[in-house]
Every structure is written in C-alpha cells, then in structure tokens.
Amino acid sequence: MTATIRSTLALPVRLADGFETQGLVVAFDGLADGREHVAVVLGEPGDVPLVRVHSECLTGDVLGSQRCDCGPQLHEAVRRISHCGGYVLYLRQEGRGIGLYNKLDAYTLQDAGLDTYEANLALGFAPDQRDYGVAAQMLLALGVDTIALLTNNPDKVAQLERAGVRVESRVPTGVHRSSANHRYLDAKAWNGHLLDGEGA
Q1: What does 81-130 look like in DSSP terms, one character per residue?
Q2: Residues belonging to the active site
Q3: CATH level 3 topology of 4-93+130-182
Q4: Which part of the chain is the GTP cyclohydrolase II domain (predicted)?
Q5: What is the CA radius of gyration of the chain?
Q6: CA distance 119 to 103
Q7: Model's pTM, two decimal places?
C-alpha cells in the first residue's frame, strides 16, 4: 500500500527547556493502519537524513512522567534533528501499541512488581505490538528511502528495512536514566534495546 502526503503546515516549536525551532508538520493519506500519524520536518534534511521514529506517550511526552524515558528522548530528537536536518515521525502507538487505557492498567501491574513487558503479557498482549511499517510508508511518501535512525531499538531498524527503507546507520539516543525509571530501562535492555551510553 502506498501512502501520499495529505497536507503540510508550518509549526513553530518550543520545548520546555526553552529550545525553539521551526518545523513543518506533514499529514498522510493511505497509511496501512488508518491512524493519524505525522512527520515533523526539522532543519534541512540531506540525502541521508537523521530520523526519529517516536511512539506516542501521553504520560511521558505531554505530562512529563518519570516512569519512562519517552519525553526526554523526544526532546533530544527535536534538538538533534533540528541541527542536522531530518524527520521526527510521531506514531500513534501508545503503550507499545496497546493503547492508553491498557497502558495505565499495565502501570498498575508494574506497581505490583511486573516489568513493562511482563505487564503487557499479563494483559493478553504481545510484549511489544508496535508496527513500524507505517513509518516506512511515511518516509517513502516523503521521497526518503535511506536514513540514519536515531534509536536504541534494533527492532525499528529491522522492521524499516523489511518495509523498504535502508537504514545506513543506527545513531544511539541518550540514556535518560533516573531513580523513577531504572527498572523500565533495565527491562528494555533485557529485551534487546542497546543502551550504548551505558555499555549495554
């Protein structure tokens, strides 16, 4: 299935720490899952742009939750990509694809001792249900078929390459560890994330 660009609009961006930049938001038609994902163009993308594929996290991105590292990773991506040029793909895949309410249920199970992956399994879901095929559709609609991917998650690399986007390099994100999210980050490392900054 081929996606097309539906609309574009300018977006002034200001992060909580005061960092400001100009972005361009791109919406799409024809995405395979029918959801409303967007791309944010930052800086001047080159032939091999830096790309962050970021899954929505209301609690982390909007409310500043310390339970995860989503908000800090998104802010890091906006700053880094603004400087070198590329794209933030914001995917509506809350809670590793299980949705907001189920994610909140998973938080309750995590408070009882399960890790983030075990909680998804206890609720009857796969440990990670995200599908990055739509990210490949978005990139191809933008005319991008080769990227540098800002991620610690090898599954993103594998899925994008299977969907027709060449990942020339994986660029590690920072490890935003705190006293509130250390178990969450440990679980990510145990499940294959490469926390390069910590020697994982």
Answers
A1: HHHH-EEEEEE--HHHHT-HHHHHHHHHHHHTT--HHHHHHHTTS-S---
A2: 128, 130
A3: Rossmann fold (3.40.50)
A4: 25-172
A5: 16
A6: 9
A7: 0.86
> Could you give the count of Cα atoms lying within 13 Å of 175 in the half-sphere of its Cβ?
16
Both tokens of residue 32?
């395979």
H or E segment and range at residue 25? strand 20-29
| Cα 140 to Cα 132: distance, rounded to the nearest angstrom | 13
Query: Helix, strand or coil for residue 65?
Result: coil
151-167 pLDDT, tens per residue?
988 899 999 999 999 99
Write out pLDDT tens, residues 100-117.
999 999 989 988 988 878
Q: Domain map of the chain by residue range? A: 4-93+130-182, 94-127
3-state helix, strand, coil in the chain (%, to 5): 35, 25, 40
CA–CA gap between residue 28 and residue 135 (Å, rounded): 11
**What type of residue is 15?**
L
Phi, then psi, of 8 in degrees rounded to 5: -135, 150
- Cα–Cα distance measured from residue 139 to residue 70, given in angstroms and rounded to the nearest whole number: 22
Site of tokens 């095929």: 133
Phi-psi region of 124 (alpha: psi -120 to 50; beta: other; left: phi over 0): left
Separation CA 140–CA 29 (nearest Å): 13
